[in-house]
Amino acid sequence: MTVNLTRTAAVATAAALMLAACSSNNQQESRETPAQDVPKASSPVDFNLPAAERYHRTATYPVYLNRPEGEPVETETVAEISTVTPDGNTVIYTDAAAKRIGFVDVRDPAKPVGAGTLSLAELGHADDQPTSVAAVGDFVLVVVDTTGGNFAQPSGRVDIVRISDRTRVHSIDLGGQPDSIAISADGSFAAIAMENQRDEEFTPPGGEEGDLPQPPTGFVQLIDLAGVPTAWKTRKVDFDVEAARTAGLDTPEDLEPEYVSINSRGQVAVTLQENNGVAIIDGRTGEVSKIFSAGTQSVEGVDTAEDGAIDQTGSIKDKPREPDAIGWIGDDHVATANEGDWKGGTRGWTIFDANSGDVVWDAGNTFEQLAVRTGLHTESRAEAKGPEPEGLAITSIGGKPTALVASERSNFVAVYDVSDVTAPQFRQILPTTPGPEGVLPIPSRNLLVIASEADDAEARVRASVNIYGYGDQYSAAAGKPQFPSIVSGDVDGAPIGWGALGALSADPTDQNRLYTATDNAYGPARILGIDTSQTPALIDTQLPITENGQPVTLDTEGVSARPDGGFVLAVEGEEGPGNELVFVGADGGIEKRVPLPDDIAAGLGGQGLEGVAVEGDSVWVAVQRELKSDPKGVVRIGRYTPDGDSWEWFGYQLDSTDVDGDWIGLSEIAVRDGSLLVLERDKLNGPDARVKAIYRVAIPTSGGVTSAADAPAVLPKTLARDLLPDLQATNGFVQEKVEGFAIAGNGNLYVVTDNDGLDDANGETVFLDLGPAGQALHG
Hints:
single chain, mainly beta, Methylamine Dehydrogenase, Chain H, Tachylectin-2, Chain A, five-stranded mixed beta sheet, four-stranded antiparallel beta sheet
């Protein structure tokens, strides 16, 4: 089939995409509705807060930078739970992976400085792991699990370390395996959740692997902090098994306390996660005043199938909440992050009346929808617990009680105004590095520190301390653009699912419109429309790609809108022969597939086509890596001419790298003013990132080579824009895959990163509006 690239039916694209904005549940109605009357998706969430009313990201500090001298950079090191010294200047975090605690100087929140570590092996045994920390006065209490895998005989201690010289002045045996710690507001006592956790590989009599009961049962340890540390005394608080049974807790004979929080009255709220319960303890007397079930929740409109698609039509039925973190809202209500650990998890968070145990509000599906709306959906967790809310803290902002809820799997913290506990108001979403758990407000300085526990040195995605400052005083140091820089609108009450955006293209007829596509991280294949006139940019349409009327899955790495209203896609194969150009009509139907010539495809490895641009009667493509037959560092730019079905090839010299495991390749191509613009990037991220740039090459006037055996002439290149400063300006972890750029009809240069569907990535998508291309590009 011959495809004419210059037909003039441009309005067809917009019409098809507007129709595609209707959900599959309303397909018949969409066919009968005139395209011009079908509204695009809109966002029900306002992300635009005044600077005075929002958190601003000031810095992201990877904690591997704080490792001891001589320790290999690839050593796993994490930040899980944190505390801060009374002056608010030094953050202290637990690093269970490396068996130590770490110190970070945050006197300048925009320039945190590693202040060293303290090894627990020096204080006890090499297997000792810190589970929590809490600063009080001149000391930091380091809660240590010394169980060493002997679940039947759990043990632990709390080390009291003087902060000034980091010496241990006293140690207290806890009589079991500890988890979290909290300090009362007046500093008179500490409460520690003594979990005595289950062995998930042990099968109890009559049960299945990982089931309860697995004695001994847990309890809460109170420590009175009067006088010098050597005079501090413990008070053990046991739970009434029959009271727990009456309250409806699961396996009440083996209770597992997880997290503690203390209100201004000295009441201790403790979650009993696997048992699906909450207990309230009078910290002054040690009396358990209340124990209640966290109950169950049914949630509709969530993705419950790990099938590669963001399908929000699933549901969970009567799942126990199994809360992890807990926090007091005032003295009469508690909020819980309903992570789930054994049988449950409800993908959200809940507010309870602490006196009655009644639910006064539950997030339902809104927490997961927030992840989808901001491109942070994690498909690999769809069948498990979705975004998995785990961490939680309550603070006060501008006199308003505020809940901060962390998603362990989708890597964000959501901010809510809980002035009305029956109707919390979403305020903001804060991106983090992977596995945020420790959520530490520092009210005296209007700071928020988020510790992340997931560390992958091989992927160079590292655990970090994420720092945010609230209000105008931190706006000058704020990362730009503010997150989220791109979101999706809702169709029939659910946000358009998206992520892994590896391409951008301008709309030939709408100056404020771009197109992008998800790669094979999410299927089936779709082309998404972006309205750049809104802030954040809004994904408001989705066009399914079909072949013979059936949806298809494609690894779309490039998209270019044709003047005739259709598209050309650059599709990357797992191996060379799978690379092809796919011509798509305005209705999303595949019109033609054009594979690479056999000899070119045979010369490719796992990286192939990465960008496509339509120019006149030609289609330009960028090949990411070298052919096996070409010199090292020389990749190919191709020109395909549909009339004649012919290919010709030109060479492009990549920048060099000497970093082990790194490589450099092309990720996008565009045409502007008689030149080709190509995006060149390395495989590095975070502080290691070096090459993220747009280069300009002249469109060749002579023909190129036509086979893999012929060496292509290398086109001279000049730097048009170094994107690394733009990516660093977010104050986040620099993203590896900057993979799409386009110059819109409004003349502005736009750039987008591919979040890889949160696979070996933190998931944050950076969408940059770099202003007029004539000013943004040089050379």
